Amino acid sequence: ANGATVPVLVIGTGYGGSVAALRLAQAGINVEMVEMGLDWSTLPPMTGVGEGNVFCRSSQPGARAYWLRTKSKAPVSNFFSFPIDSEISKFTGILDAEEFAGITVYQGRGVGGGSLVNGGMAVTPKRERFASILPSVNADEMYNTYYPRANANLGVGNIRQAWFDTAECYQYSRVGRKHAQRSGFNWTFVPDVYDWNYMEAEQAGTVKRSALDTQVLYGNDAGKKSLPKTYIAQALATGKVNISTLHRVTNITTATGGYRVTIEEINTSGDVVATKNVTAGKVFCAAGSVGTSKLLVKMKATGQLPNLNGEVGKGWGDNGNVMVARANHLWDPTGKLQSTIPCSGIDNWEAGGAFAEVTPLPVGIETYASMYLAVTNTQYRAQFTWNASTGKVDLSWQTAWKQDSINKAKTIFDKINQKEGTIYRTDLFGGSKQWQDGLTYHPLGGVVIDKATDNYGRVAGYTGLYAIDASLLPNGISCNPFVTITALAERNIEKIIATDL
Ligand code: FDA
Questions:
Q1: Check: complex ipTM more than 0.90
Q2: What distance in angstroms lies between residue 473's CA and the mean position of ligand 1's atoms?
């Protein structure tokens, strides 16, 4: 409520925020969480398109699919060159396609953050790569304690390999495996937080289908262990955590007793319906790489937190994301039933700087397409800056930088195409583009550990102000990021509880 005083305020309910809330509550502290999106567990099933589901299918985005847009903006924008985006009504939907000058950054909105919309791929980076991912963090502690803790609490599991070899819905992955291995690449299974027993039941037809009913990007009605089923459920069960939804933090400044935080309450059309001020003893920024960076850059530039250092807003990267599809021969169908949850990848990191997930194109018909999302080892980093004339935060990303990621991904796919006698698809991303190089799913950095903060996320210049999300990560992860975000948050919050509270 307006004027309230709270011991701890956590901004955002994604991975970093959920870990912070659970551990603080277990330490006996009352935690107030602020989330700009909806609590999706309170929404009734839809009527009409998507009847009976809470969430939209990826093939049928409606109002609930997008954060305050009037037209969908799907990562695969065309099919057989035909544009597939459609008009939708403006609503505080689940997927934000946030547009900066050089790049669209996709993010989840609502209680659970990115866990609501992501593929659930839960990858722990190879240990020998860790020193280049988080150079200032002790690897022994991470691999002995915090990665195992994160994996256990997130509910990470593996596909049953004997089932994988015959399941109709993973034919596309088996084709991906065959092509990768014939070209001499290292193909690996990828763990996921989807309930694999439920997945098998979906294929058998004994339960309601979700992953097998094209759900993922706009939410998932069953099967996926997103944060509201794991960390957030545990946090709420302590009785010490309260979440205010449709509340968006706009300002943080110092005040007697800690920080004065300004929060706008919005309605589901995005209009501001109330503005509130809260005093918090400690503030944890967990609004995601973009959200936390935007907030702190604005606070520094507008003089509300003038002691933030010059590293705030710097070191932002896209984890080298590019998407591509190959056109297979007619004797290599990928299957008309495809699970939205990827379970495998091609690892060419050491030799070529690319790790590519074998991803589905779940459109309900045979496409003969093999799709991939590549994470690449790009060194390009952009900076967030305050634009006083627009009152917004800009990002200095350059579209040309993606060529480096494309080149790295081509170390895999040019070779496979040559071996298989196949070509890239040009009908999926608009124009005749072979590569989807205009987006990222993996925003990282902006409030980098040991630069804008100390080695545990304590923001430099201010006591009791923390960053505890993807904004801390200095470098590409070499794989999908949320396990590392979660493990780092576990490490940092343990230290903070022991020494600061
Ligand atoms: P996260 O973004 O999860 O949460 C931040 C929260 O803060 C959001 O709920 C947001 O609404 C809220 N917020 C922001 N600003 C606010 C403000 N001012 N006031 C109040 N609330 C605010 N990763 C992976 O490891 N495996 C995968 O398979 C995938 N797949 C994938 C697919 C898609 C489509 C996307 C978009 C992303 C992925 N990811 C992924 C990435 C992964 O989801 C992402 O890295 C994490 O969610 C980031 O976690 P954070 O805790 O940093 O923030």
A1: yes
A2: 14
